[in-house]
Amino acid sequence: MANRGLIQAACVRAIKSLGAEAVALCEEADFNQVGVREASRAYVISSKKTSSPYLDVDEVLKAAVECKVDAVHPGYGFLAENTELSKKLTERGIAFIAPTRLAKGRSTSENKKFLGEIAVKAGVAVLPHSAVFENTADLAGEAKNIGYPLMVKAPAASGGRCIREARSESELKTAVESVIRQCERFGYEKSVYLEKTLTHPHVISFPVLRDKNGKSIIFPELDGSVQFRFRRLLVESPSPSLSKEARGKIMSTLPALIDGLGIVGYASVDFFITENDVYFVDVKETIQHFHGVTNLLTGVDILREQIRLHSSEPLLLQKDSIRSEGSVVAVNIDAMDPYNNFAPSPGKIERMFVPYGEGIVVQSPFVSGDTVSPNYESVLAKIMAYSGTREKAISSMESALSNFRIEGISTTLPFLRGVLKHPDFLNLKWTGMQMAYENRIQEVLENINTPEEEEQAALIAALALSTDSNASTIMASAEHGGFLWAMFKGNRKLQY
Fold it and tell me: Which InterPro entries does the UniProt entry name for this protein (predicted)?
């Protein structure tokens, strides 16, 4: 298992459930993480070549050979789509649980073109887009042809990485440079393409399992429309906003699409849905952050099945046996400060209190006293709420978030509480670009506290004015509409 955090722990459990040994790779600082503790064996890695040993192809390869493993599971991110690692593992007879394109020898750039061609053949509309460019000097003309606003993406873009929006020609160069820098950082091919932006799409994904013989199962869709910086913060399944007509259209084209791609294992097929149209976006064959939502809704362990199918075993699941009643709402709690434009908030977790209750599932690699590293993604925990209806699942999630306590660092808990109360979310009007503008962030945060909590915040701020050296900053923030809870920055942060 060549990853860390939540996905490492989930993979270790899936591997062991199949009766196999799970070897967890970890750097020294991650030795006490739950995935490492639960693994059959641990192998400590380090690197002088990259910012993270998890990105070092030779280090991961060395560990795989020395441990005599049959397969490497990369999780998501890091080396999950790395062509070099795939090739070197294959040369040594080690399976790589990774996208089909790697086994077919297609680069991410070639694969992006291939995906578009297969989608069109399957009868799915695609957004106006450019070819993939390595020479970014040619992009200005393409951008004019497509029209602003548009997205600048790397072919391997995922999880908010390597994707930026350009709303005008003046923003294009900066957006391209930002994407290229991220490609370099994460070891992706340094190429980009442009894609037309839809201003109010719902972001819908269909999880799929398919075996080598072509048998496949399509699972209930996930709605990931609550995003910030193109990263999903909240997911629902099934989607409450997907019409019967749109769902039927997608379901009629999906079999031809996944068969045309020759997928083996797991895939997430992504679409943008507007009031009148359905657009194909991408196919991701690496396991996704919110795969646990499908597990909870259907009772199927997606990771376990992915590993089985990559071992050339047949798909044994039958469509009629998959549970699909009820509703799941899931959130990621991140170490970011929503009152400071979601700035990272690494540091020591002084105390963490986890909620519990019927239908509530909490997953976290952290416990009280752990330190959140500034070097990796900021997910502290994942909370999932399952109930018979969407309304009951939302109510359960509200209760869970109210009872989740983290001391020592800032988190996205307040923002998530605000989303659950927001009329657009409750009335199915929340769309994928909702949080693209800062004023919408403030709009969400302004209404999360009760009158009693606001009174407490006012008292804290008043006390701070007489004791805090930052009194002038507090007053200035108040005069410009700053949030009382955000104004008080003591030595100890408490997130509710």
Answer: ATP-grasp, BC-like_N, Biotin_carboxylation_dom, Biotin_COase_C, CPAse_ATP-bd, PreATP-grasp_dom_sf, Rudment_hybrid_motif
